Structures are given as C-alpha cells and as structure tokens.
Amino acid sequence: MLNLPKKYTKKSWIRGGSVPEHEKFIGMPSISWSQIEKYRNTPKESFNNRDGLIDYITQYFLNIDDDSDRLKIFGAFGTEVENYICERKDADMFDSKEKETLETIEPLGKFQVEVVIDMKDFVILGFIDDHSPIKRKKIEIIRDYKTKSENSKKDLHSPKKLQLPLYVGAFQKRGIKVGKAEYCIIERLGGGALYKGGGRPDLKVGERIWYEEYKYTQDTITEAFEIARKTATEISEYYSIYQKLNGSGK
For residues 129 and 147, is the Cβ–Cβ distance under 8 A? Predict the structure, then answer.
C-alpha cells in the first residue's frame, strides 16, 4: 500500500452514497483528482501563486487549510449552480434572471455520482457532476459543470487536466463505453469584485452557456492514469519522510 495522508473512510463511503461496490475500499489510501492537480500546479497555475508541492504539504501533511476565502466562495458558487441545474436546490441564491439562464440547461440524469478508481495500492476519488443513464454498457455523455468567465475557461482543455480522462477510464475499467465527455460552462460574473474584497453577493450567473467537448484518446487516458500513479507515489515517499522526521512514522 502507498502511504498517503488520506484514506477512504466509512464516512467518505457514506458521503458518497454508500455504494455497495465501494465499501470494500474503506481503509485504502486515497487521493482525489483535484489533489493530484493541486500537487502538480506551478506557482503561475495555482490560485495563491505557490508551488503545488508546498500547497499540498501545507494542507494535507500539516493540516493547515490556508485556501483563501475567495477560493472557497468561488467553490461554493459553483456547487450552488450545479445544485440548481440538476436538483433545483439553492434557489434562494439566484435571482429570476439567473434562474432563467440556468433552466435552459437540461440535466443528463445522474447527478454527483461517486467515482472510486482501484489502483491496487491506493484509490483515486472523484464525483461526476452529471452523466447519461447507463444503457447496454454505454453512457452517451459525461458532463462537468464549470462556472467561469470567458477568459478563465480556456485552461479547461489543458493536457494537465486529469478529471475527465480519469472518469472515462474509470468507466472503461467497468466495461462501460463513454460516447463523449463535455464541459458545460456557465458564465460567471463578478470575479473582479470578489478579488477586490467583495463576497458571494458579487458573483452572478451571466447570460452565456458554452458546451465544449473534451477531446481524449486512449493514449491520453493511459497517460492520465500514469500521472496519477506517479504523483501518488511521490506523495507517499514525501509523506513517509515527513512522518519519520516528525516521529510519527515507523
């Protein structure tokens, strides 16, 4: 087993919907796709202009949650948008014009589906925002919702983005084919005001919606899994050293 700071716990399993097939992974070392991306960020790519390794160690080795309030507000806004699109929850967070825009988006049918990818000596965790029902071992579309400005949405097609290829690969491991993967990007307004000290009320849903297919091949899926394993292995080595220096390791 790898030695990772996080494990897939019973609490995690319950939060993910108590999926029977996932119960066997309780106790396994775990890492999420977002943690992998955080670890691999360069200072330019990170939210706080810090190296991803430093960010990861700070949060997951030292248990210091120093993500900025702005980042948390952006994250909460995205969750509220997804909740309204798929389940009409958090309706009080949006005005009538924003709701009108969000209601033009037709959900695919399966919202916030937990993914646990068995890598033998650790698991990769994630949640698929929305996907079509599985029919005859095939899913037509898997979709990730993002709230972005027109400028900030460009990075979603970077080769460093692992989320969607890992999800496609997760279905392939189960013998399920995926027709296509896409982003549904909801225009987000007010980011500038938030950076200047504003709060959640400054963020608004704009009028534009973009649907952008995420292009992948079998090679890019294989590469995503290789990057995930390499990253998890490096973290395991660093964490073992940290524990020894800290007197908590063997």
Answer: no
pLDDT at site 247: 80
From CA 208, how far away is CA 186, in angstroms rounded?
A: 7
In DSSP terms, 141 is beta-bridged to 180
Range of the domain at 127: 6-246
Residue 98 lies in a domain: yes
Q: List own/partner pairs for 236-245 with CB under 8 A and 24 or more apart.
A: 236/2, 236/3, 236/4, 236/29, 236/122, 238/53, 238/57, 238/61, 239/3, 239/4, 239/5, 239/61, 240/3, 242/57, 242/61, 243/3
Let me know if residue 1 belongs to a domain.
Answer: no
pTM above 0.85, yes or no: yes
On whether residue 51 sits in a domain, the answer given is yes
What is the phi/psi pair of residue 106, to 5°? -95, 115
- Give the number of domains in the chain: 1
**Which residues are registered as beta bridge partners of 188?**
205
pLDDT value of position 143: 97
**149 and 189 Cβ atoms separated by less than 8 Å:** yes
CATH number for the domain including 143? Answer: 3.90.320.10
How would you classify the pairing of strands 29-32 and 6-7? antiparallel
pLDDT digits (tens, 9 = 90+) for 164-179: 999 999 999 999 999 9
pLDDT at position 134 over 90: yes
CB atoms within 10 A of CB 74: 19
46 within 8 A of 59, measured Cβ to Cβ: no
